[in-house]
Design brief:
The structure holds two protein chains of two kinds. Chain A is mainly beta. Chain A has no helices and eleven strands. In chain A, the strands form two sheets. In chain A, strands 2, 4, 5, 6, 9, 10 and 11 form a seven-stranded mixed sheet that branches. In chain A, strands 1-3-8-7 form a four-stranded antiparallel sheet, with no helix packed on it. Chain B is mostly beta strands. Chain B contains no helices and eleven strands. In chain B, strands 2, 4, 5, 9, 10 and 11 form a six-stranded mixed sheet that branches. In chain B, strands 1-3-8-7-6 form a five-stranded antiparallel sheet, with no helix packed on it. Classes of the chains: A mainly beta, B mainly beta. The interface between A and B is medium-sized, with 22 and 20 residues.
Chain lengths: ~110, ~110
């Protein structure tokens, strides 16, 4: 499986600010996935990031709130914009292998005050 | 709406016993199913994947799939305290996306 590195691992942010999470993969992948895991909840897909095209967002998530970049086949960023306490979550970057198995980075734990 | 249902638990078993974790899914299109283990404060880790009806064994873990009943299970034999974690079931939606259940918390007591 690929090695997936995320930065920051955790952060505490003020309401109204924005934070960019970085995800680096040790091999080239076509798609990268961004998930959110709110406290005590399961994983929810935010968007799929494809290199060279705009990200595809799931219902309930919009580009203005969660802009995503995918400049190359090994890197992606997710920005959480204009944060509120409801955005306090773990944000996870993931990639899949050819059989559809999904592998996750270590996650970025975000607390918004 | 595509859903994956799991009992939240906690499921408590003594060390050495078999832990049985269950999951149902709503979308008959789903063909691939996955079990993830998530320790507190950590990201999910893939344990098993299963694509065909029947059983699939890997060490102490056995995944079972019954597509007719839309049912997936994970058996953990000889449970150890280190198996204590939340176990997430996931199913593909047919669009290269996975839907996750809310997870079952397993507690293995020494």
């Amino acid at each position: 499986s690929a090695v997936i590195s995320q930065k920051p691992s955790r952060d505490i942010c003020q309401r109204g600010t924005s934070l960019t999470i970085q995800c680096q993969v040790d091999s080239q992948v076509t798609m990268m996935f961004w998930y959110r895991q709110q406290p005590g909840q399961s994983l929810t897909l935010i968007a799929t990031a494809n290199q060279g095209s705009e990200a595809t967002y799931e219902s309930g998530f919009v580009i203005d709130k969660f802009p995503i970049s995918r400049p190359n086949l090994t890197f992606s960023t997710l920005t959480v914009s204009n944060m509120s306490p409801e955005d306090s979550s773990i944000y996870l970057c993931s990639v899949e292998n050819p059989t559809g198995e999904l592998f996750f980075g270590e996650g970025s734990r975000l607390t918004v005050l | 709406q595509k859903e994956v249902e799991q009992n939240s638990g906690p499921l408590s078993v003594p060390e050495g016993a078999i832990a049985s974790l269950n999951c149902t899914y709503s979308d008959r299109v789903s063909q691939s199913f996955f079990w993830y283990r998530q320790y507190s404060g950590k990201s999910p880790e893939l344990i098993m994947s299963i694509y065909s009806n029947g059983d699939k064994e890997d060490g102490r873990f056995t995944a079972q799939l019954n597509k007719a009943s839309q049912y997936v299970s994970l058996l953990i034999r000889d449970s150890q305290p280190s198996d204590s974690a939340t176990y997430l079931c996931a199913a593909d939606t047919g669009f290269q996306k996975l839907v996750f259940g809310t997870g079952t918390r397993l507690l293995v007591s020494p």
